[in-house]
Amino acid sequence: MIPLDAAWRSAHPLPMPTGETSKNSRGQVLVIGGARRVPGAVALTAEAALRVGAGKVRIATIDAAALPLGIAMPEIGVIGLREDAAGEIVIADEPALARTLERVDAVAIGPGMGDPDAAARVVRWAAARLATQAVLVLDGAAVACAGGLCDALAPLAGRLILTPHPGEMAALMACDPATVSEQGEALAVAAAERFGAALALKGSQTIVAAPRAEPLHYPGGGVGLATGGSGDVLAGAVAGLAARGASPVEALAWGVWLHGEAGRTLAQRSGPIGFLARELPPLLPALLPR
Fold this sequence. Notes:
The protein is an alpha/beta fold. It has one domain (2-12, 22-272): 3-Layer(aba) Sandwich (UDP-N-acetylmuramoyl-L-alanine:D-glutamate ligase). It is built from 13 helices and eleven strands. Strands 1-11-10-9-8-7-6-2-3-4-5 form an eleven-stranded mixed β-sheet, with helices on both faces. Helix 2 runs parallel beside helix 11. The two termini are 27 Å apart.
């Protein structure tokens, strides 16, 4: 595997804004997720996308959470969606969301969602309406359910990003969790090839795989990153970088590195465990290349 080190980052610089810019030209991100049990996860994703330089971010979530999120984050737009009896997003005829999907540069689906079946319905609906240039990032329940959505995701090959942890990887590839532990690199490569996706198998040693490419390896940002909401921050950073114009594998690799280095910074400041996912996004701008 290729180390995700300074040499790799130097050879794969992030696109930077030049000349006249606007919030639209800096990249637009849509985050779809949240549920009654975890209404705030999408806020972590949205903030991370803004912190890595995306110009505009919208959140689509259950209607009960949309207004509070919009007030708490005045930088974003919100779209309220119906919820089912379990508090998960219900997708039906959603004209405002459909219009947004046609305009954005990157979409992140999954943060805060708990039901794979509800997530699958959202992914299938959104994938059919996604702008032709947009990148789709699947995280959490949305990546765990993707194994049954190959038909819907096939048209997105080359602009699909998957961010599973080991449990979600087992669901994605319909294998035993022990297989993920024992054959993580090979499984990540196989999944990337199967879906035509850039894929990060998250863990203490994160593997970034893409079709027809040697995998990248990041040694990890420390045990403190194994905390609620940490993956939601990573998904937002990756979506924000993709919206700015980075290729899917570069957005994913840079997102993994930025997320991990933010974890290292917090561990040095406050101790190896006990910091919160919400503390990660404010550190991202200073870690971006200048």
